[in-house]
């Protein structure tokens, strides 16, 4: 949550003070923009005014308005003692003693067992970082970029050298994408401030993107993965319809922005090739300018200053743009197939207010572990563990996975593990199935 100031309380809280007690029915009434309460460890907080100042963006708190946000709060904030200092002015009371700790009939035993598992992982050091791991990861990114320049200095800009440079730079960009992801989740340093600085350096100077843009978008995804109207990653701008619910809704409403029954085919032309070079680049620039985020904009410019100063001497200005476009094109394919293999084939629905474990497992799956899969996906083949414990350093996912599986088995929660090729194929199969659901509803309902 972070810091804040005293909130303007509405009529229902006036005169009741911070010692007031509330029922879940009362809390759930405060779930609208401008009037938002959340519950954390049975304490009720009025975050209506604070949401616009939240470092993770206003939407991520808004997604839990009127709900128990304890598990999400625990998952996102590694230094809870520090954060709680700023929560005091937001406190308006607590749940009545007769009210359960969990809302929406969540399984209290499952929630307690998951919290106990998290505490065991913490005691065993699974939330502690190996500095050598991240130093080596950053080092191999810098080496890849240095090799590309060394090849040009030594061999010139012939076709073979140019192709090798594009491949090296695309690999460096993809791996830098996984590294900025680590810093963005505050999973590297003991002090989150250092993570924030490193995040801006990697995503800004090494990649030419915006840390705040990434945070505000990605934290929403983690807070409510695959939840319609809350997870921006499944908002495909009416280009694709995903899951089993949205296609039928679109079909019944006779919405046909594109022939969705063919989306599993045109996905190859407008998904992987265009996401980073076109959509992300435009959206990042637009967001920084509209929000006047000049710090991220300076980091963004530093990437292009470095890139053009290195490559214009070999390729000229327009040639350097062509090289960068090719790099973004390859990086985009890499990014899309890795990030979507864990989510698109899974359940996509409106919010049904599940506990943290059940919600994350419904929306995520794992891909088999191997040295290549770990490196290629930035350990996002352990997507389940990453979603359950987003601040856990990724080199510890492999140690956490077996006990997460045991907990899932105890409560009958499905824990899916796929092969890499199977996971990629399931993206296409899922798009095809969703397209067929849309067509059936469009023609017959």
TrEMBL record:
GO terms for molecular function: oxidoreductase activity, acting on paired donors, with oxidation of a pair of donors resulting in the reduction of molecular oxygen to two molecules of water. InterPro entries: Cyt_B5-like_heme/steroid-bd, Cyt_B5-like_heme/steroid_sf, FA_desaturase_dom, Fatty_acid_desaturase. One of its GO terms (cellular component) is endomembrane system. It is a multi-pass membrane protein. It is found in: Endomembrane system. Its main location: membrane. Pfam families: Cyt-b5, FA_desaturase. GO terms for biological process: unsaturated fatty acid biosynthetic process. Gene3D superfamilies: Cytochrome b5-like heme/steroid binding domain. Keywords: Electron transport, Fatty acid biosynthesis, Fatty acid metabolism, Lipid biosynthesis, Lipid metabolism, Membrane, Oxidoreductase, Transmembrane, Transmembrane helix, Transport. The chain crosses the membrane at residues 132-153, 266-284, 304-327. Residues 19-96 form the Cytochrome b5 heme-binding domain. The keyword Plastid does not apply. The keyword Chloroplast does not apply. It comes from the Eukaryota. Pathway: Lipid metabolism; polyunsaturated fatty acid biosynthesis. PANTHER family: ACYL-COA 6-DESATURASE (PTHR19353:SF12), FATTY ACID DESATURASE 2 (PTHR19353). Belongs to the fatty acid desaturase type 1 family. This is Fatty acid desaturase 2.
